[in-house]
Amino acid sequence: MKQIIRTLSWEKDKLEIIDQTRLPENEEYIKLCTVEDVFEAIRTLKIRGAPAIGIAAAYGILLAAKKAKIKDKKNFFEILEKSSQYMNSCRPTAYNLFYAVKRLNDIALKNSHLLVKEIIRRMELECQKIFNEDIQSSISIARYGNTLIKSGMRILTHCNAGALATSGIGTALAPVYLAARKHKRIEVFVDETRPVLQGARLTMWELKKANIKCTLICDNMAGFLMQQKRIDMVITGADRIASNGDTANKIGTYSIAVLAKFHRIPFYIAAPLSSFDFSKPSGDRIPVEQRDRKEITCIKGVSIAPENINVYNPSFDITPGRLITGFITEKGIFACEEIHMLAKTEQY
Amino acid sequence: MKQIIRTLSWEKDKLEIIDQTRLPENEEYIKLCTVEDVFEAIRTLKIRGAPAIGIAAAYGILLAAKKAKIKDKKNFFEILEKSSQYMNSCRPTAYNLFYAVKRLNDIALKNSHLLVKEIIRRMELECQKIFNEDIQSSISIARYGNTLIKSGMRILTHCNAGALATSGIGTALAPVYLAARKHKRIEVFVDETRPVLQGARLTMWELKKANIKCTLICDNMAGFLMQQKRIDMVITGADRIASNGDTANKIGTYSIAVLAKFHRIPFYIAAPLSSFDFSKPSGDRIPVEQRDRKEITCIKGVSIAPENINVYNPSFDITPGRLITGFITEKGIFACEEIHMLAKTEQY
C-alpha cells in the first residue's frame, strides 16, 4: 500500500506540507523553511493529526539546528534546548509532538561527542526514521485493524485520522483502506467534527479520493444512526493515550464512545505507540487544549452566532479506557488492561 | 411575564413574523399575506419551533379562507379541505401543525350552518384562541418547570425552544426565564444544533437579549461537560410526543438523552399538550423529516465539504420515553407512564 497523499515531505532543507486549512477546495502545498514556520503551521492547523504533528515537530527542531548560526557545541545545545521548549509549547495535547522532540534531543545527546555538523546529520537521519516508522506503523495498524472488518460493515469515524494525519495511510482509516483494497464491501459514516470540520473537509476529501463509500453526517446524528442499527463499528484516532487506556482525542470522541457503549457497538482507537504516554497513569493528567472562541462563532470567516457571547471550546476530550473495546497499534490489538505492557516495548 | 419577542402577530389580515433565517444579524419582520406565504415561511424555517409552526399554520388556513373567491358554502369547504391538505404537507414531524389545522377545520364544521362570512369570523377567533392558549401554556410550563430549578444550576438545552418557538415565552426556556426572574443564579449551556444552528443563532440571541448567563458549545461538547459534572439538568422542547412518551425533537436530542442517562443527569422535555399525538402508540410511528443535503454541506452559502458527496440529514430523532425523566406541560409534570392519562384531558 503506497502513500495516498503527500501530507508532508522533506526536500532540500524544507518541509513541504499540504495546507489542510485550504482543503477540500484547494490542494495547495507550502514550504516550511524555519522552526517558526513549522510552529505556525502546527498552531494554525495547516498540519494536524497527532502522528503528522510529531513528524513536523521533529523537522522543526532539525530546521532550528540547521538554520542557526552556531558558535560552538555549547551554543548548539543551547539552541537545541530553546527550540525544543519552543516547539513543545506549540500545542499541548498530542503526545507525538513531545515524543518526536525528545527523540531529536536524545539522538543529539547520544552523539554529543561528534562534531556539530555530524550531530545535525544524525538528527536528520532520525527525522527520516520517525517519518518512515510512521509509514510502517500505519501499514501494521491497517493489517491488524483489517482483521476486525467484515464485508458489509458500516464504520463510523470522527475527525480525520487518515493519510492526512500521518506520513503513511493513516491510523483509524488505515484498516478501512486495506479492507477496501481487499474488496470488502464497506461504508464509512463521517462525523463532520465541529468546530474545525476535519471530518467534512478532510476525511470526506480523502475517502472520496480513494473511492471509498462514505456519508457525511453532523456530529449529533451518530447516535440516531446507532439507534437504527446502521453502525457496526467505530474507529477513531488518538492524540494521547495514558497507561490505563484513557484516551485524549478530538472533542466529541467521548460522546461517541458513550453512545457506542449504550448501543453495544465496538469502539476502537487506532494509534501508533508514539501516541502512548506511559508517564500518565490516567487521562485526568492529560492537558486539554482550549482553542479560540472564533472556531465556534465563525465558519470560514462567516459569523454564525451573536457577538460578544460566552463560548466553551475544548479541542479534545478524554475517553475512559473502559469504554474502549480495543487499541489497534502497530504491535497488535490490545485491551486497555494490556496497555501498560506496551510500555516495555522497545519504541526506538 | 410578558412576551419577550414578537415571534408572530396577526395584524389586519396579515401574519407578521420575525424572519428567523435572518437572525441573529438582522431583526427583520416580514408579512405573510397568503397561505402560500405561510407554507413557504414554515418550509424554509423563517418560522419554526413546533408551537409557532402550529399557530402559523392556523393563520395560514385562515388566510386561505379569507383570500379565496368563494362561490358558495360547498366551494368554501372544498377550499378549506384543499388548503388544509396543502398546509399538512408542509413539514411532517411537528404535531402542532396537524393539531392546529384540525382545530380550524373542526370549528368550521361545527359552524357549518352559519354564513361563510360568519364561519370565517369563528375561524379567526379560533386562531386567536390557539395563539393565546400557547402564551398561557408557556406561562404554565414556566411555573411547573421552575419548581425543578435550584439556584446554582447549570442547564443544557438543544435547538431553540424559547420565545422564538412559541407565541409566549417558550417551552424549554420558559422555566429558565421564570427562574431568572425569581433571581435564581442559573447558567444555560446551549448546543449550537447543527445543521441549521438554531442554538447558536436563535437561543443565544434570545438568552442574551434576556440577560441570562449562557455559553455556546458545539453539539459534540455536551458529553464532555457532563463528564466534568458541569451540567445539572437538561431541558429541550419537542416536535411530537407519542402516547408512550417517545419524543421526536431536533436531531441530536436522542444523543443528549443517552449521555444524560449515562451521567445520571435529569433530562426533561417541555411541551404543551398541542405537541402530544395520542394517536401514535410509540415513536417509531412518527415520520422524521429528511432535509436538503445543502444544510450540511453549506453554511450561510459557504461550502464546507467536497462536492458531490453522500449526506444523511434527518431533521429530527426519536428519544424513547424511558430516557426522559419527565414531561413539563401546562397541566403539570408527568412521567412517561402517565402520558396516556393526558389523552383524556380536554384540549380545546
What does this structure look like?
The structure is a homodimer of 348-residue chains. By secondary structure, chain A is α/β, with parallel strands linked by helices. Chain A folds into 2 domains: 8-139, translation initiation factor eif-2b, domain 1 (Four Helix Bundle (Hemerythrin (Met), subunit A), Up-down Bundle), CATH 1.20.120; 142-345, Rossmann fold, CATH 3.40.50.10470. Chain A is built from 11 helices and 17 strands. In chain A, the strands form 4 sheets. In chain A, strands 6-5-4-7-10-16-17 form a 7-stranded mixed β-sheet, with helices on both faces. A 4-stranded mixed β-sheet of chain A has the order 11-8-9-15, covered by helices on one side. A 3-stranded antiparallel β-sheet of chain A has the order 1-2-3. Chain A starts with 7 loop residues before the first strand and ends in a 6-residue tail after the last helix. The model of chain A has no long low-confidence stretch (mean pLDDT 96). At the A-B interface, helix 7, strand 6, helix 8, helix 9 and strand 13 of A face helix 7, strand 6, helix 8, helix 9 and strand 13 of B.
